[in-house]
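Chain A, query sequence.
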Amino acid sequence: MSMASTPRSIPLTCSGHTRPVVDLQFSRVMSDGTYYMISACKDGNPMLRDGQTGDWIGTFIGHKGAVWSARMSTDVTKAVTASADFTAKVWDTYTGETLYSFPHQHIVRGCDFSGDGTRIVTGGMEKKLRIFDLNKEDLTGQPFLVSEGHSQMIRNVVWDGARNMILSSGDDMEIKVWDPRSFNQVHSCKMDGPIASMELSADGQYITSTTGKSVYFWDAQTYTLRKHIKTEYDVSAVSLHPNHTRFVAGGSSDLWVRIYDFESGRELEVYKGHHGPVHTVSYSPDGELYATGSEDGTIRLWQTTPGKRYGLWQGDGNEDA
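Chain A, predicted structure.
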């Protein structure tokens, strides 16, 4: 009597980018049950896609250098991108038009929207954080507030809309927490190396961060360390499943996508699908899939539960594919 084999995970490949994909973000689930995904790429052409299927919706054309970060506003009406062309741009996601272009003095690595979508924060090679107010009548391109608290390059910025706090991190080995009203630093989470990635979990409970072979999970309310997991490889990015049972990790020096048990830190699944290191990973807002972006220029969508009917996956028909 033969045992039924566990369905293999067959990823969907999203083509279109021509250079390494370095950043991904999913939107929240919209009222009609759909959600979206935005990608940043060194080809300078960020893309918007249907989150469930990966189908291309549009490309934001206008940057003259690599795009390092791309984020959507909560209502998905706007996108913001950070680029090596020394600008951050805000886009209309319906028309693809540039709404604002904010000049900087060096490469911009990170960007995000405030919870209400009226402001953006940027950071990068200048070691400065800037807040731009999109509601100001006289948009001269000048920042509303500037902070110079970092001593080295800023790689990641997150605006925690629920608590109205800004998180920033990079090569100076700590996550800094800022009150955007005064732009004073109010907390710090210190790590033991340059911080490659930082993400706020979908429910806002955890800040995930990576440095070297370490993954950290911080309490986003108290900024205390909740979990530290060591791996056997350099971790480029991590995303926590919405139900906190597992997390996905990509490596900066190999081709594997790994799934871990959150409580024990034990490796559960290992997949190879990319032809280059994995730079960015993210779970969908419903937890049914996760996306990975790679040096190979592709985005791949993977099912959390292989064999389940979801999106373009037709269920157990994939088992013998």
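The chain has two domains: 12-20+193-306, 60-190. Residues 1-5 have pLDDT under 50 and may be disordered.
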